[in-house]
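Case study 2.
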Amino acid sequence: MPINEAFKIADQVLANMIKGIVETISAPSLINLDFADFKTIVKRGGLAVIGVGESDAPNRAEEAVRNALRNPLLDVDYAGAKGALIHVSGDAQMTIEEANRVGEIVTEMMDNDALVIWGARVNPEMDGKLKVTLVLTGVNSPDLPSGLGAIAPQLFNLEPYAEPEKPLGIKLDLYQMERYYS
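Prediction:
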């Protein structure tokens, strides 16, 4: 594959992943997923992949999962995955059977002790389509350096940290400060 095409595909894949995660954790759903759910799955460790797939085929649940698992740049082995965040979006005709089928397909290939968190949203704009957003952890890929999948991710506290202030033992009132700086 020519390098320009590879980078174009990588850009599109990355944009779809980011959009999928942002929509999953921020838009209201029938069964909501939030950033805490995302962190819980990612903390399971190992190599993580994000996939987004859509379908309007008669078997749209199966096809959307297949599309979400398809990665044009990496060969990924999902067998034995340790964690999954699954979000299903569909129009008003989406059935509970379709939403459940998505979860069944994904969990069938995972480790028996895997943690799965899922959510669902009805979105009238889907117009006959079903969309699946997946975050899978503990997967393997021969395309990535050996051992990378064994590194547990560190989720840093995003709150700024400051040492508690220590008293200086100096007592100045406003009058003293005005005289000093005048």
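Residues 146-157 have pLDDT under 50 and may be disordered.
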